[in-house]
Write a structure and sequence with these properties.
binds S-adenosylmethionine, disordered C terminus, alpha/beta, about 425 residues, seven-stranded mixed β-sheet, 2 domains
Length: about 425
């Protein structure tokens, strides 16, 4: 039996344990229910009629755990999704290529179930003797195409109008991925890998972000944020621009830990303003005073409130005064976020980056933008060393995807829906 599990020891929050294991006959009813629900959507499979237990009694026997497995993902004792690998084509030359299928119970959507299953398949493919995986996905199935792309699959083929569902012709896209991915090293720089994330897609994401930053240099917001940076921020202008950009494009709410006198808070507020959408922007600050040549203050909270008011963003910011780790602070943040998710998390307080993430990891949207300061600095620095260790551990576990290092000391990337069984 294949079982991948362990307790999430550190998370204080109610992260759910996920177990991936070989499917057994007892799982067949749940597997079939999930499949039949997918058939009805006309989005995910060319099968048009529901299947029955009787017809599919031998389904699992067509698979072998050591070559072409059929897995289920179980959470809280319930089957949340399944994945199967089967030979792509019978000819010998294709023996290293497998076709992948993944289905998720509607009740467990948006919890990273498909991603977790796909990541496991990619990670395990070398030991299964699989050198390439293909997924056959209908052209209108954007969520699946996006997920596959995020996991390093590329469009290897298009079969136009090849399927007819009801009276509508559907394109079939062949998404393919080599296992392991090729081109790990580009111009001598070995990319930091985030679990099974393909280096090509990761590199594209990094370059896209750099390109975005360059474009902002030609826009009025650049000058606007330059003033904010000079008057109210310890962060580099590039980082403020990225915070503005993420706040503008992110889905979900925004949480900032360590607002100081408001530089990054104002940048994020401008992003929300320019998005034209309603998003909560929660800023946590403990207060105090600071001796600093440019930004010295006797009263951080007083100056923070004053700066937010001057920039006309007070109304947009929910300011939580207190230590980020106080239960009252955490409860207040959670209450403000409500049933929504966090789409941008800015960490610029103390060194305990993982502690902050643990407070909200169940609220982080998959793909949540992450801006984490204090990643670079003198090797012996008491803040940098533990901060970097926390971030590196999360990257190594595949929880965080690196998109670049910016400014003086800032790590930028995305939350990749830490699977609950990974100990970060
Ligand atoms: C480096 S400054 C933040 C700079 C700010 N991001 C900017 O744009 O200039 C760090 C801030 O985090 C606050 N802070 C440190 N630890 C904290 C904690 N555990 N909870 C809340 N605030 C904290 C400090 O009071 C300080 O104002």
């Amino acid at each position: 039996m294949t079982a991948v599990t362990s307790e999430n020891r550190r998370s204080q929050t109610a992260a759910t344990k996920m177990i991936i294991r070989d499917a057994g006959d007892a799982d067949l009813p749940a597997i079939i229910d999930i499949y039949n629900a997918a058939i009805a959507t006309r989005m995910a499979t060319a099968q048009l009629d529901p299947v029955t237990l009787e017809e599919r009694r031998d389904w699992l026997k067509e698979h072998s755990p050591d070559r072409h497995p059929f897995w289920v993902l179980e959470t809280d004792g319930r089957i949340a999704g399944w994945l199967s690998l089967k030979p792509f084509a019978p000819r010998c030359a294709y023996r290293g290529t497998a076709e992948i299928s993944v289905y998720v119970d509607e009740k467990f959507r948006r919890r990273g179930v498909a991603r977790r299953l796909l990541e496991e398949a990619i990670a395990r493919s070398p030991s299964l003797g699989i050198t390439a995986i293909v997924g056959l996905i209908f052209g209108q199935n954007d969520p699946s195409l996006k997920l596959f792309e995020q996991l390093g699959f590329q469009r290897w083929g298009l079969l136009p109008g090849i399927a007819r569902l009801e009276d509508v012709e559907r394109d079939l896209i062949v998404m393919g991925r080599r296992c392991p991915a090729r081109d790990d090293t580009i111009t001598g720089l070995t990319l930091q890998r985030t679990g099974p994330m393909s280096s090509n897609s990761q590199l594209n994401d990094c370059l896209n972000l750099m390109h975005t930053l360059m474009q902002y240099r030609q826009e009025p917001i650049h000058a606007e944020l330059l003033k904010i940076r000079d008057k109210h921020s310890m962060l580099h202008l590039d980082v403020l621009i990225l915070i503005y950009h993420f706040a503008k494009i992110c889905m979900g709410q925004i949480v900032e830990v360590g607002a100081f006198v408001g530089g990054a808070t104002i940048a994020a507020a401008f992003g929300v303003r320019d998005s034209g959408k309603r998003k909560a922007l929660i800023a946590i600050e403990q207060g105090g005073s600071l001796k600093h040549k440019r930004l010295g203050t006797r009263n951080i909270l007083r100056d923070l409130e004053r700066n937010l008011a001057r920039r006309r963003v007070s109304e947009m910011v929910t300011l939580i005064k207190g230590h980020s780790f106080d239960p009252g602070t955490i409860a207040a943040v959670r209450q403000t976020v409500g049933s929504d998710e966090i789409g941008l998390l800015i960490l610029d307080a103390d060194a305990a980056k993982q502690r902050e993430i643990d407070c909200y990891r169940d609220k982080l949207a998959d793909g949540c933008w992450m801006v984490i300061d204090d990643y670079y600095g003198p090797a012996a620095d008491s803040k940098i060393t533990p901060a970097r260790a926390d971030v590196d551990a999360l990257v190594a576990a595949g929880c965080l995807q690196l998109l670049g290092f910016y400014g003086w000391s800032t790590w930028v990337g995305r939350w990749r829906g830490c699977a609950a069984e990974v100990i970060c």
